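Dear support,

I submitted the protein below through the web form. The confirmation email said the job was done, but the results page showed an empty box. After a refresh the structure appeared. I'm attaching both so you can tell me whether what I see now is the final result or a partial one.
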Amino acid sequence: MGEKPFPSTGPYGHRQRMREKLLGRGPEALADYEVLEMLLFAAFRDGDTKPLAKALINRFGSFAKVLAAPPDALMAAPDIGLHAAAAVKIVQAAAMRMMQAELLEQPLLNNWERLMGYLTAALSREKIEQFRVLFLDSKNRLIADEAQARGTVNHTPVYPREVVKRALELHATALILVHNHPSGDPTPSRADIEMTAAVKGAAAVLEIMVHDHLILGNGKWTSFRREGLL
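What the results page shows now:
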């Protein structure tokens, strides 16, 4: 019968066209669902991933929220298994690593906009409270960003001695405390203020500076230093 004009009329041809579109026209040529569709190629060797990509965005609300979704929430979605959930989370991890690498290049206090972009990406969509510490060297460059504790929707236990102990292990000379409010309101609670004072006091004994405590809400944030609380 001879060679057919179109070697493939199914998903393989579509996938090739998507790759050519990405590489030829750049990522800005792709809609969010198309980026997610291509991401799912890694988990599904066969078949059309477009309906699944659209269903995930509908379920979680946006492409960014799909990436930020907890693994168990992803795997609870129809037709999403371990491989697809892992593919989504590794992309989120890669994006965070890239943003963190940019922060390592210069003092954090001189690059507030980039710092807040990184922290917003890391925490703003979290459904439970998470307390993180940015450990800085004597030039205020980032040594490490570590999650110290995860709690409930409105409380995270924080132990000042553990924070200071970790700072000593990393040879950090300064800290920025960070946590999120899943309610979306970044207003500090009385417990937040008391915890900050306790960490500041424990750190001061060893001449470790607490530069700030940042609380992230839904598109908003509060700085203890700017509010005169530190």
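Response: this is the final, complete result; the empty box was a page-load delay. Residues 82-103 form the longest helix (22 residues).
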